[in-house]
Amino acid sequence: MKNLLLTSLCLALLSCGSLRVYSDHDTTVDFDSYKTYAFFKPGIDEVEISDLDKKRILKAIESVLDAKQLTKSETPDLLINLAVKSSNEVFINQNNNMMGFGFGYGWGWGWPYNNNIARVSSQTNGMLFIDLIDTKTKQLVWQGKGKGFISEYTKKRTERIQLFVSEILKNYPPNKE
Predict the structure, then answer these.
(1) What distance in Å separates the CA atoms of residue 62 and residue 10, rounded to the nearest whole number?
(2) What are phi and psi of 109, to 5 degrees?
(3) What's CA 140's distance to the chain center, in Å?
(4) What's the order of all strands across the beta sheet hosting 78-102?
(5) Where do the domains of the chain lie, and which CATH numbers do they carry?
(6) CA distances from 44 to 58, 65, 108, 177 (A)
């Protein structure tokens, strides 16, 4: 359950913080030949995130690919799969403030004051992978991933997911080399 919650938050990558995207592809593939796509249901069903977030991601992918002139089909050229990873980072910030009041110059009687403050915070880093698989060769031909900070408190979750997916798929199809 804890893992499910953590990875569910992963798709809120999407709350605050910077977003970094990367992509890689098979340089021998002619991406202009791909015209249709479908989602790889068995792979997507295994992703441990909430069903609501899955729907948001799939809808965002459909929107972006439609704008790129790819059509959803029962007999696709490409299969789309998702993967999610998350990790926690803990930050400890400690301040030791020491001061005192006293009489005399350099020595004498006084009252010291010590204020130790320790602040502990954590943030979850999440990654969303979008894999494009050629249906004829059954090979991965393109992979995009986005990495960002996660917050469980996201008011505009749908918009953030749309932005996140758009940024990942911005590099598809890749430039011809």
Answers:
(1) 20
(2) -80, 150
(3) 20
(4) 19-25, 140-150, 110-134, 78-102, 36-39, 71-72
(5) 2-90+123-169 (3.30.160.670)
(6) 10, 17, 73, 31
Sign of the CA dihedral 71, 73, 79, 85? positive
pTM, full prediction: 0.71
Strand ranges inside the chain, DSSP E: 19-25, 36-39, 71-72, 78-102, 110-134, 140-150
Please write the tens of the pLDDT for every residue from 134-144: 999 999 999 99
- Tens digits of residue pLDDT in 36-46: 999 999 999 99
Strands 110-134 and 140-150 turn out to be antiparallel
Phi, psi of 89 (to 5 degrees): -120, 135
**Separation CA 147–CA 141 (nearest Å):** 20
What is the distance between the alpha carbons of residues 128 and 60, in angstroms, rounded to a whole number? 13
In contact, 113 and 100? CB cutoff 8 Å: yes
How many angstroms from the chain centroid is the CA of residue 141?
Answer: 21
